[in-house]
Amino acid sequence: MEDYLPFVISGLGLGAVYALSGVGLVVLYRSSGVLNFAFGALGAIGAYVAWSLLEADWPQGLAWCAAVGTAMGLSLAYGRLLAPRLSHRDPTIRSIATLGFALVVMGFTEWFWGEQPRRLVLPTDGGALELLLGEVEVRLTHTRALGLVLAVLMMGGVGLLLSKTRVGLKMRALANDRDLSALLGIRVLGVDTVAWILSGAFAGVCGLLLANIVRLQATLLTFLVIPAFAAAIIGRLHSLPATVAGGIAIGVLEAVAITVPGFASFRTATPFLIALAMIVLYRTEARRA
What we know:
The chain is mainly α and about 290 residues long. It is built from twelve helices and two strands; from the N terminus they run H-H-H-H-E-E-H-H-H-H-H-H-H-H.
């Protein structure tokens, strides 16, 4: 068991990013019924903006804000300009449309910055928490610890937003019945706009963290949506705590998979396998019900 502890600790940080991503997907889905497949691409372009500004000697804080702001701005633009034109279509079509948006954003990112992998350096790289677990000493970098803290805080913040504010009440009403909510006077477009902005903010933060923990590459970050989707499926696209727990579990399992003989080179398939297993499980339960 002690041999696996370093991999478990390493996976916690990556899992925190997956958890944050899953929450970003669930927030938007609960309000609009749309699965945002452009989530990873928005995080990618935000991370590249931060990298460019840091290379130009901008202050760290401004670079981070610009990254999150870029992701939020693009998410808002899609939510206000394109998403309303598809509001009368089937939710599946509306979700697939975001995949086209993701390809456009990823294509622009690769054209503008190139495909060469880079690394986004954050101030939190300079230190680590030394943890003594039994007789094993493990290190948790400050960036990974920050990811865990953000996962809990942002989940709590979204939970309070949904349960304690008027905007949250409207979001929950839309999740139950959009047509009836519109008849009752709820401004559907306005509520959806808030959800798109929140989703973009989560994408920007996750892009920064993943670009630091793994690497800065448009394709890699774009496919962040896969483990995020798996985490959201574990939460049944509704439960925020289950989504966070699922995301962290996926990160840990992906890290531990390195130790499995013959599976190490396929460990990136872990989120796919988990998502598939959960879909099959839930469909089986639905049929029994």
